[in-house]
User: Fold these one by one.
Assistant:
Number 1:
Amino acid sequence: MQQIRIGTLVNGPDAIRNLPQIIPHGFESFSLTFWQTTNNEDLVEMAKRVKEIIAEKDIVISSLGIFGNPLTGERGNADTLASWERLIDHAQDFGTDLISGFTGRMPGSIEQSLPRYKEVFGELAKRAEDRGVKIAFENCDMGGTWENGDWNIAHNPTAWEMMFNVLPAENIGLQWEPCHQMVSLIDPIPQLRKWVGKIFNVHGKDATIAWDIVHEYGIHGPKQFVWHRTPGFGDTNWTDIISILRQNGYNGSIDIEGFHDPVYCGEWEMTGQVHALNYLKNCRGGNFIPNPK
């Protein structure tokens, strides 16, 4: 059984500066992310310098992420589709076989986005397959509903069924986290058991649900009822998550998605992330210990 690595997300353009500062804390993987565009980044040079930083360390680049709307090219997302192509082409330079991000979305309902989704990601899936690369969609709603949204159709399990039906590519799957389901009051554990075979990467992000507020005020009242949390501070039992992943042969990583926790934020950000790192390592049983011979 392969060890599940525990890592964190790092902004791609800041990776050369930030990686040497946070590697000593014990992170085992890094997901390098870009917001809407890779800009004019020299990805070959970036990959070379990243590999030099992690050389001779037991660290991997688990994925590259591009988060924007590749379906429309609007609202500041004009370069997102081209960035998907660039990252697919340069994935192996970074030593990874996974590109993640949002599906994008057309105006209107999820059903109305499916034809354009099939067109765009049909081509990207072929491009990725030719290079031995997989594609994973984060299960984030970005404030969208079934009927309307600007960013991502892959935020609901019914949508996943529709997406995988219209485009049944083996190299397309999910970048899953419990938080994005909990904010919709979906129990993540039975969902994980059902979809684990399609999960290529896990984001380490949790949530706290104030059920007393839900019961008294509902979810459309003036009081906030759910908060994104760093693992170790939320409601999820990550020992259960890791056990389910292991029972189903998961060989990816869990990469902490920081900068969302309402308590461990600002100057306390890295304190929260290192707590999550150590908490998740404990949830997997600590480090591997060989049996006596």
Number 2:
Amino acid sequence: MIAGLLRVRLCGAVALAALAGLLLCPDASLAGALPLGCGAWLLASCGTMLNQLQERHSDTLMLRTRHRPLPAGRLRPSTVLAAAVIFGTFGLTLLASCDWRSAAAGALALLCYNGLYTPLKKHSALALLPGACCGSLAPALGWLAGGGQADDPRLILLGGLLLLWQLPHFWVLALRHRADLQRAGLFPDLPLQTSPPLYGLIFLWTFALSVATLLLPAFGMVPNWAAVLLSLAVWVAPLKSWRTSRTSSFDCKAVAASASNS
């Protein structure tokens, strides 16, 4: 129940991204790694609890989320709200102990995620933009905690890479769970019924991400070989999704042909 509420893997990924920002920040002290990692994890947990509180009615309509604690009735909304406030308060406090700017970036991420992305999901696919901005702020938590500047080109590149990754990653998931999204009425203007245009966007954004990854060595952030590997790795999920869709399409056509022949 706790794992379903906190979405441990997602929150852990946010904490790792924050720690990566700290490690990549020049001359940063690793003494703040523990409060930074814990603060980022707590703040991400706060965000996901608020998200599930906001979407508890939609979650009951989706097969993927209907067994979460709130739609399943295992937890009360007031309990989840209280836990979110506690987690958020401690998370921001820990981030502020590293650097007040890190806490400010965390508060901005919460605003983007719970104040813009979550309520806009029922109205427009444009909700993905503040959602992507929220995800791109994760390395900024560590970079600012390490004493880096917010306008440093290296931080802008890191955030830009995550921004480019967020959208194709979501589109791949949306195609996989299109029936759930349609039942819940989320992202009503997203072209899930006609996947070819969406696949075009996925490959376009992935190409941009792949090329942008090759800029990392120019900023002295990773060696050339690591940038090449990362540039190739970003294609794994889109190609896998495309292959799955082609297989599914082939199976559907085979079934239809068999039915017509019979």
Number 3:
Amino acid sequence: MPIDSNITSLGGLKGKTVSVPFGSTAHGMLLRALKKQGIDPEKDLTLVSQSPEIGGSSLQSHKIDGHADFVPFAELFPYRGFAKKIYDGSDANTPTFHGTLVNADFAKKYPEIVVAFLRATLEADRLVASDPEKYSELIAKTTGIDAEVNYLFLGPLGVQTRDSSFKPEYRQAIKTAIETLTLLKRNDVEISSDELVDDRYIREAYKKSGLSYEKQLTNYAKQPLNAKDDRTGESINDFSRVTQVWFVGEPKVRNYSSPESALFAIRDGEKNGKKIRAVYVVDKQSGLKLLGNLAWYVRNPNGQIDAYLQKDSADIAAKKTGGSVVTFTTTFSVAEKNSTQVKQL
């Protein structure tokens, strides 16, 4: 949504104009999300097809009321200060899968090349996991996507798992994608998800890399966070309220066990003239990692602070606990001049 829009949920899109890249995973997600909310995309709103670049421009110029897209744009646009996020695809409970396609004839003729490529991706994953800040910066130089957004996806507890194994859910995701294309009349031949999946090459890549493919098939964990609270020195074992702070001029992201702990660090940083690059929090409801300045917060009577992606969820939680809903600026009391993120609110 445009940053100054008063719409805070999908229900507010009725009668509005929303763009999405037609035929994409984002398109399928949006249709399912609207249906779940009882909104008929053909009658209750106007859907137009726009690429991420056009969609972003349209949001800035207020030519549309909303835009749905795939990663990283749902985080990138808000981070750059001209949009806000009101819905995450994970709420649709419909998994998606992003991978690399290879021509079947080529793969059969040059299996060693396919396996070598897949091994390279596994090694790249290992490197990113070993130093996510460093590689987030490198990706930013290469792609133009801000390092702070890259870290959100690729860092510990990040949004992207970078899973290379063909889990049952991913097979279902391909099936769902085919169904979506058929629904949109963009698929004129019958395709089975089984004929699109051939995991012998990735299995061989795992084997040659000294990794267990079977073990990975049962691994659903996010990139792990092995850290201590930067303020207290205590090990972080509960990741449901982890808060991370990336200060300007510091190569590493600081980790805290809770928003309250991070609050003290941010205020101390202010006193010492430090500026914030990014704050990361965890959505109390879904466990999704969020850019802190884009979240809503519930300040409870007992002093606990919880983060939420959706304002409606924060309102419900505040009512139950007797707390109050506040913004990032109010929560962390960060001077506006010290944070580009705060300026985006």
